[in-house]
Design goal:
Distance between the termini: 27 Å
Radius of gyration: 28 Å
Shape: globular
Strand order of the largest sheet: 12-13-11-14-15-10-16
Number of helices: 22
Amino acid sequence: MMDRNSPITQVKGIGAKTASLFEKLGVYTVGDILLHYPKTYLQFPKAKYVDEAVEEETAAVIGRIIKSPCVMRARNMPITVTAIGTLTQTIELIWFRMPYIKNQLNLGETYIFYGKIFNKKNKLTMEQPTIYTKEQYAAMEQSFLPVYGLTGGVSNNLITKTIRAVLREEHLFTEYLPSKIRDRYQLCEYNYAVKQIHFPDDMDTLITARKRLVFDEFFLFILDMQYQKEKRVKEINEFRFLEDHFTDELIAKLPFELTSAQIRALADIKRDMRGAYVMQRLIQGDVGSGKTIIAFLAMADTAHNGCQSAIMAPTEVLARQHYETFRALCEQFGIKIPIVLLTGSMTAKQKRMSYEALLLYQNAMVIGTHALIQEKAVYDNLALVITDEQHRFGVRQREVFAKKGSNPHILVMSATPIPRTLAIILYGDLDISVVDEVPKKRLPVKNCVVDTRFRPKAYEFIEKEVKDGHQAYIICPLVEETESIEAENATDYVKKLRTILPGDIALGILHGQMKPEQKNSVMESFLKNEIQVLVATTVVEVGVNVPNATVMMIENAERFGLAQLHQLRGRVGRGDAQSYCIMVNGSHSLTAERRLAILNESNDGFKIASEDLKLRGPGDFFGIRQSGDLQFALGDIYQDAYVLQQASDSVNCLLEEDPELENENNKNLRLHLHSYVTDDRRQMNL
């Protein structure tokens, strides 16, 4: 009998080949496929009449056949053509390679046609529309069709079919939340929630299901964190650091002045590292607030005291940039500290040399990516571990990294602007330092929110900036065109730009589906100004420092969370030149205008996060996921802040009553928590 831990191949029709494709989506087991939640839902629009049809719109149009369907041939391809309409407006309907359609349609009868409307040669046209009777479409209007994240070879239909097959197995998941918690917050039963999140009966059941599953995500994350924290005693600090003025002397040699916030954060770190217990601290600083120099000074202080330190970056390009920056600073300060680079793409010989350096130099500053926590990386005297952009790694990886030394100090650096109340919940195991100022000489980014009519002027402006020696980013929400979402995609956008911008402007493309070495190559080229305009998806959000980039143009800005837009904007404004952020609003929604106005009026990430929280609130069900910050599958820490607070309160009450989860009522919860931790560790090692 199939259970949640059964391999996905136990589902009828899923063989080894399909299973290997599912693995690319992180789906290995029956339980995994049910947790592969829809990213959105397709709800069929209210059918409209031909006179109401608008070009460039995906619509359902009621129409009477006014032209006998006929099949023509072009280049040996059958093309079925007919038309619907009235005396004032008609729509031509075209189907390619579908001659049988002719027999499904009768002159004079009325049908509903669903598809995208185009204007071709001043004539409204719909290609490959789906045909429904009025009765069929009326039933479709009531349903929500799930749209899933896909990979090559896996269609939306295949995922839908697989999930339906799995859901026929009753009670794959045992209810584990104590009834007291479910009753307090009116949370539905778990199996019901899983079924309704995939195939909701209506909007109300979808909201109910999502609330339960979001609560569970937050609850399990906080419970695991707090449970481990309660079991973990404070580690004694075995390292003895000098009380001297070494870092003050380095700061005095800097060509710029540190902000008060940077000085406070560094003082917190130095105090912790000389305290009685091992440091566990979060440096939460807005984009461009100067966290890298804090990391360097902390690592230099560690090296000065004869110990090793390591910083793990989320991308190879950023790791290499840190490496070059740290080397330049050591040269500038006239200090001889061994600096070691370790990344996955290095050759076997280069890696071997780095491993040897770890054992040879007891005061090395080590910079790298995930390669830093691989089995072969053995440290001799590791006293400080820094994870940069921690939300890309997760709590578990932080723990693995920490075990590389003998209880080293832990410093986490995050640029995600979280209101302090949420930060205390999400980083409950860490002390928090906030860097809430930007370097004094840095010019604030100039913002503008425009509609799509402004594009030609934006291209002219980008061309002017490039001619002045600068570079630009253009961000698209999609990699490729998709039927279910109308938004700009990077693949087609680059092709379009090549016909608009002069040929001597080098264009590049960057997106998450590219191989790591391809992404590294593109970012290296952009960093060297070999690419002047980079069209990308949000993968640049955690990117390198490109001081020469002065323009950030974001297409369909309404589709991004405010915190994510702020992170993207932070990619520019890093040099001395004035920088600009152009947010193109592709929506006519008043809510979208109000949200984007917050960004337009402020460059303060902490203020933006708080304002976004107030504006969106719990009722904004289809709010846009923020990026970064502890990638929950469904939950959004901004939109669902009230659920996050409820989950936190529930965990605190539960652990007060039953610290070891030994109560019989919590038996299923204890088993589920163990399963959650195991799944989390497996995902971490993918």
